[in-house]
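TEACHING EXERCISE
Course module: macromolecular assemblies
Task: Read the component lines below, then compare them to the predicted structure of the full complex.
Student: A.B.
Group: 4
Components provided:
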Amino acid sequence: MDFSFATQQIIYGLTLGCLYGLLAIGYTMVYGVLRLINFAHGDLLMVSAYVAFFGIIIFSLPWPLAFVGAAVLTAMIGILIDRGAYKPIRKSPRISALITAIGVSFFLENLALVLIGGRPKSFPTPMMFNGSLTLGQLKIPVLSLWVLAVTLVLLIVVVTIIHRTRVGMAMRALSRDIETVSLMGIDENRVISFTFALGSVLAAFGGVMWCMKYPAVEPFMGVIPGLKAFVAAVLGGIGNVTGAAIGGLILGLAEVLIVAIEPDWSGYRDAIAFCIMIVILLTRPTGIMGENLPD
Amino acid sequence: MNENLLQIQGLVVQFGGICAVNHLNLSINRSEIIGLIGPNGAGKTTAFNVITGIVKPASGNLFFLEQEITGKPTPVIARKGIARTFQNIRLYDDLTVIENVMVAAHCAISYSFPEAIIGFGRFGKDERRIKSRARDLLELMGLAHLGGEKANSLPYGSQRKLEIARALALEPKLLLLDEPVAGMNPTETSEFGEFVLKLRKDMSLGIGLIEHDMSFVMHVCDRIKVIDHGVEIAWGVPHEIRNNEKVIKAYLGEG
Amino acid sequence: MPEENPIRDRLLTGLALVFLVAFLWYADNYFGAYTQRILNNIAIFIILAVSYNLINGITGQFSLEPNAFLAVGAYTSAIFTLSPEEKIRSFIIEPMIWPLSDMSLSFPASLLLAGLVTALMALLMAIPVFRVRGDYLAIVTLGFGEVIQVVANNIIPVTNGPLGIKGLTPHTNIWWSWGICIFTVFCVVRLVNSSYGRAMKAVREDETAAQAMGINAFRIKTLAFTFSAFFEGVAGGLLAHLITTISPSLFTFMLTFNLLIIIVVGGLGSTTGAIISAILITWGGEALRIVEEPASIFGFQYEGVPGMRMVLFSVILIFVMLFARQGLMGRNEFRWLKLIAWFERLTKTGAKAK
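Instructor-supplied answer key:
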């Protein structure tokens, strides 16, 4: 394997990793605040993809408007899911919330199937994201640069929000102890809604960029990325935003590089995340950046 | 008679940089009732949590019957003979009262997993033994008539009693009670005091006790340890503690 | 009010079993193939629901394993009931690898093996998950379901890849499926009523308090998970020899989702509820098939919408969780005592009315 091939593969891996990372941040924030694996989070990827798709194709919106619309609508749906499905059972046993989350996820997927149909739609990638830069033997897709830049910017924004703003402080407090927070006079429901909105916006950006990379929009497109993003969140240390991004990058690189080195294993690509999950649980259950969460 | 049960040496517990318990020493003998008192947040419950293996200490050593139990898993410690109740009552809410007590006998069953499924062998005899033992304990706590009720349907006071019945079903050598008379009226409290003394006499248990009700503590305990902010500030028999200036200050200071 | 009477209860249970056997005999001889097939499906779903409820409802550990374990069980038993000649004929992409290609077992032995292999898988998963943080069980089992499909598609010399295994002998009949169903229910009920069952419920209610009473929560959870995996594996074997063709795409998450609905509607934690609900939903799901198929209603042409049943099912699931979490049975179990008391009340009010 020569140098340029390796660099090429690393760029692909990083691109995929960023997309996992964007999704993983949403998982990790919601898990940190509510101790809930939000199974419906992966499906927000699909929601934003469809919104952007219809925005461009049916309503002939210019793409920046369609993308912003996708982010806003996805955030609203994220809040709606929390308010409608999770908030009523906040005080119930955790298993009820998990079952509801599975129900919501299945509902979104099958509603999309019923309303839009199962046939994959090809995403109209705007011109400026197509093509690639050539550096010697290296071909860098323009989209990869965009993905890397957008992810970096969003990560900085999220980390700033969590560490520098009041609502971010409340989020961190919530992830420590939910009862004390309501005693402190913070409206926990607003903080939780904000968490869902923020996570959903990241998922929306991830979704739109995912469709430009793999231009097929279909109802179940969020399932596998969602599953892997959760593994990335665990790998990075659940509850830790930077960890989730790093976890995503490691997972993306691992998937691309393992298949690049051993093409015979390409069939098993989707099994890599699962193996990583088992290895983390056996060796370092708190993840790379994780600390022990109080139970 | 005065066999040593529990020995705690230089216990330190930290939560995210805050020292919850700082160099605590404590010893409880058989048939001895030791009180652990102090203002809220003094680290009393944390000490119980360390003894029962729920919280891992930063340093220090714990011995039970001269065996090291520091950092051992909770069920292992329980099986050695340390039973406890919880400050905020932790029953198995959706199980019946008698089932709550029977759960604690799980580590004493003699039948195997296949026997449980086929139902032959020691299963029937053992289940009858566990059940009659649980009935005896409910009788002892005055809950016999409530055996079939769900645990969460009991009034507060009865729930506290049920927790003690459950702890006793473990056949412990050392019993740790975390605020057992909280929420009881004075009559109930003094009745419970007599009960604790009787328990010590009948079963020659060692008992560790966290409580805010001073007259109860003074009446029941042989010796009392006072801690504040995780640090020991006094140790002695009840009338020594009653007149200790540091103790008075700690309580008044908390206001 | 009637009184507790174990001997009467046992007699009544025996009597009910005799009636069930008589019904099954009648069904076996006189019912059509379609109805028999639904009956077989119901038995398999009861096995699955009762064992799935053991881990989710009784022990309170949220898991999403049934489709994966069904697949493991189905493949294991199918691989071993094919004769060596049949294996040569079916495995056309690549021949089956050696020791497997010459091995062959009887149907009951293959079911037992299916159960054991699945239980072993469960054990291997339970150790990392339950040792650290139980709430990752859902993700690990969900991931395992995806991995099993990937593996089944790729290890062609064992599974025949995407083509699947065809032409299995239809060994599963009313007697096998219902016999194993009754056996499973018997085992699970006995387990739940033993000290192990109480320990499982204690872990569900309050894990810390259970540990403080000397219960090793890790071992109890692993036990429950492995035990239910065994029966799910056996059910997989039954399913394979009922439909006679298995392929990786058969074992999607949809199966697990159906079972989740069954145990939630029946009442999480109630074995009786799981049984009743398995019957209702397997039947109902069959009846609802029409909404997804084109039909003509009162002269209107109805296109049939794929996915409609699943939308309906997920709405039911969310609705039950939000507004009727008790489901049909809550955590109560069927008892003869209650039935008799109910009967007495009925006759008394009847007498009063006169």
